[in-house]
């Protein structure tokens, strides 16, 4: 069966056709669907890509049909690499040159299908996609019913008999081979396969799925973006995550962002921002990426977002080509002048606006990596606008409409929104009679009550009431920053900022 070619792929499609046509593979080129593996079969190491191209095409066809990606933790292995695997399993060579021992997890060197490029091991990396093929869909059994779904695509999971020495039969549910290798057990390949496989005839396969519309890859390195050429893209991702421990989806997302030139910091053992921890900067760039791909802008690393990240890397996209720009902070002078002007227009004390901006962010809209949020409380930008209950305003920041406010990317819009909110809370503090309720003079009571309202949402009493006093009066205490009794630390800090004016 001839593979379909999507004309959008251009030269890449021709390259894939040539690979198939000139392949010296002993596998059938016509009995099973074949799809270009570039877009949904990924390898942790460059050398592992040297598996049989027909085998790779079958894996890709299966992945495309099930809308997943396959992450290969181990593909082709040289003899020397197999020696290391065998020794890692506890095996060794005796004085006569015979391989002995081992726990059964690795084949004797020279007897592994990996050495021929006719086997892969699915990595846990890239969940949930890899988990689908490794565990969820096919479980841990080797039943005929489950295996038929794989065999339709010319691949299967063998039941091994240990390593040919240690008799320890097991289903390696992470291990996949071409169907043609089943039942082979000559001296060069001492493997025992599940008997049921021998009775299953190849199923007439459906026509190969169409390769999706993906932009043709560029061949030149974009030196200006400091992003490697497309042929090296996935190697950059793999190298970026090398040795990193933590949540594998986060590691994958961070590595993709790094490969596309996003400034994600210098955290982690490789000093490239890949550390397996989902912090403010990474989440910010994921939200930016989601907005450009038409995905929900929630910062959630679900399977769809991870798939789009992988596609973007392999398509040669960069932060710049996506139209994403790292933010740059205005000078402190610019911020002070702007807040002074706006407070005057709104009729609220200038010192109240300046002190709030300093308390919330130190008058900075972006962090050192150009991200404006979110922090652990989902606050954004110079005035730390909380996203909760402001979803419509937040989404306007990504609607590309110059007539709607952008509190995420535009520091002035963020300040405008924050100062208008201060104006509302200032009026509430006056209406609550806070001028005469607090322990300070009326001006300061109103200012401190306004900040309590701004920071807590509705708790005008927080600045003048300890936690235990609030509880004794039947007032809510979830607005306090500590379970320890006392005044809220944020109100104490704001009072010092308001009185001492550190921006001067």
Any overview of this molecule?
- The protein has helices spanning 11-22, 53-65, 79-88, 129-136, 144-151, 195-199, 233-240, 248-259, 280-292, 303-314, 332-346, 350-361, 391-396, 411-431, 442-456, 467-472, 489-500, and strands at 41-43, 70-74, 91-93, 99-101, 120-122, 155-156, 159-161, 169-171, 175-178, 379-380, 385-386.
- The protein is elongated and about 90 Å long.
- A five-stranded mixed beta sheet has the order 1-2-5-9-6. It has a two-stranded antiparallel ribbon with strand order 3-4.
- The model is unreliable at 1-10, 124-143, 161-169 and 186-229 (pLDDT under 50).
- The protein has 504 residues and is of the alpha+beta class.
- The longest helix has 21 residues, at 411-431.
The proportion of strand residues reads: 5-15%
Structural class: alpha+beta
Sheet having the most strands: 5 strands, mixed
CATH topological fold name of the largest domain:
Muramoyl-pentapeptide Carboxypeptidase, domain 2
Total number of distinct structural domains: 3
Percent helix = 25-40%
List keywords for this structure.
Lysozyme, 504 residues, Muramoyl-pentapeptide Carboxypeptidase, domain 2, 11 strands, disordered N terminus, 17 helices, five-stranded mixed beta sheet
Give a short overview.
Helices cover 37% and strands 7% of the residues. The protein has helices spanning 11-22, 53-65, 79-88, 129-136, 144-151, 195-199, 233-240, 248-259, 280-292, 303-314, 332-346, 350-361, 391-396, 411-431, 442-456, 467-472, 489-500, and strands at 41-43, 70-74, 91-93, 99-101, 120-122, 155-156, 159-161, 169-171, 175-178, 379-380, 385-386. The strands form four sheets. It has a five-stranded mixed β-sheet with strand order 1-2-5-9-6. It has a two-stranded antiparallel ribbon with strand order 3-4.
């Amino acid at each position: 069966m001839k593979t379909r070619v999507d004309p959008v792929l251009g030269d890449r499609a021709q390259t894939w056709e040539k690979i198939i046509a000139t392949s010296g593979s002993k596998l059938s080129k016509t009995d099973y669907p074949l799809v270009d593996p570039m877009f949904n079969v990924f390898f942790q190491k460059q050398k592992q890509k040297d598996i049989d191209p027909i085998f790779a095409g079958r894996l890709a066809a299966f992945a495309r049909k099930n809308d997943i990606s396959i992450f290969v933790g181990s593909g082709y292995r040289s003899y020397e690499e197999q020696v290391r695997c065998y020794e890692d399993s506890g095996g060794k060579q005796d004085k006569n040159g015979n391989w002995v021992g081992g726990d059964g997890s690795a084949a004797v060197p020279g007897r592994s299908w990996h050495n021929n490029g006719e086997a892969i091991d699915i990595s846990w990396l890239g969940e949930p996609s890899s988990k689908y093929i490794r565990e969820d869909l096919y479980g841990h059994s080797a039943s005929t019913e489950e295996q038929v779904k794989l065999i339709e695509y010319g691949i299967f999971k063998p039941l091994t008999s240990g390593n040919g020495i240690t008799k320890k039969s097991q289903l390696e549910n992470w291990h996949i081979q071409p169907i043609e290798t089943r039942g082979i057990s000559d001296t060069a390949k001492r493997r025992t396969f599940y008997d049921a496989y021998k009775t299953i005839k190849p199923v007439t396969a459906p026509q190969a799925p169409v390769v999706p519309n993906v932009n043709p890859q560029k061949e030149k390195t974009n030196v200006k973006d400091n992003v490697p050429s497309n042929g090296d893209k996935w190697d950059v991702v793999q190298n970026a995550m090398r040795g990193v421990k933590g949540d594998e989806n986060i590691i994958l997302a961070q590595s993709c962002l790094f490969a596309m030139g996003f400034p994600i910091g210098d955290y982690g053992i490789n000093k490239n921002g890949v550390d397996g921890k989902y912090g403010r900067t990474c989440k910010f760039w994921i939200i930016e990426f989601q907005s450009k791909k038409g995905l929900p802008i929630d910062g959630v690393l679900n399977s769809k977002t991870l798939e789009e990240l992988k596609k973007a890397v392999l398509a040669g996209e960069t932060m710049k080509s996506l139209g994403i720009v790292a933010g740059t902070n205005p000078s402190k002078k610019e911020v002070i002048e702007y807040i002074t002007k706006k407070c005057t227009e709104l009729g609220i004390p200038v010192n109240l606006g300046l002190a709030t901006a300093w308390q919330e962010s130190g008058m900075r809209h972006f962090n050192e990596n150009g991200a404006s949020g979110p922090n652990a409380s989902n606050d954004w930008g110079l005035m730390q606008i909380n996203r909760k209950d402001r979803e419509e305003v937040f989404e306007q920041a990504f609607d590309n409409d110059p007539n709607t406010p952008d509190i995420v990317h535009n520091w002035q819009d963020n300040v405008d929104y924050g100062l208008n909110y201060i104006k509302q809370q200032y009026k509430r503090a006056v209406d609550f009679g806070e001028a005469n309720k607090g322990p300070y003079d009326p001006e300061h009571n109103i200012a401190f009550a306004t900040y309590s309202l701004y920071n807590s949402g509705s708790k005008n009493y927080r600045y003048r009431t300890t936690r235990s006093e609030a509880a004794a009066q039947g007032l809510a205490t979830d607005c306090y920053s500590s379970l320890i009794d006392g005044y809220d630390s944020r109100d104490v800090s704001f009072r010092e900022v308001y009185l001492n004016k550190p921006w001067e």
